[in-house]
Amino acid sequence: MKVINMKEFFKRAIMGFVYGVFIGQTILILESLAGGKGNFYPVSAYLLEHSSSQISAVIIQYFITGIIGISFATTTLIFEIDSWSITSQTALHFAITSLVMYISGFFCGWFPHTVKSTIIWFVIFIVIYVIMWVGFMFYFKKQIKKINEVL
Description:
Blueprint: H1 6-35, H2 45-49, H3 54-75, H4 86-108, H5 115-150
Helix pairs in contact: 1-3, 3-4
């Protein structure tokens, strides 16, 4: 069984944090452009209401988006465990990333705290996850075909 290289883990974690914050901020800018009427909204009204100040809400969201990035970047190491089936790898990756995303969204107030919105959130997450997973599978199958042609 392959042992996780800690240097690679920390490299992915650092880059994941940076990417997570970048993507989070980009989404905020796009949301503000779409519905902000010329204003920038750095956090949800829920997070602002439940924080001591706007800057503390921004800092909380900054670190939460960084944590999301870390979770997505580091959990890709799961797919490097050759002794596991793709089903096991995918199930664990899905479980970790969906939980991190849900808990992050819950604390940041990115969706209402109701059963209905939770179900809708998970359905949307599953659809996006499946689309991304299928896309990656096609990509890697194409890469394997190219390698086999060279051999």
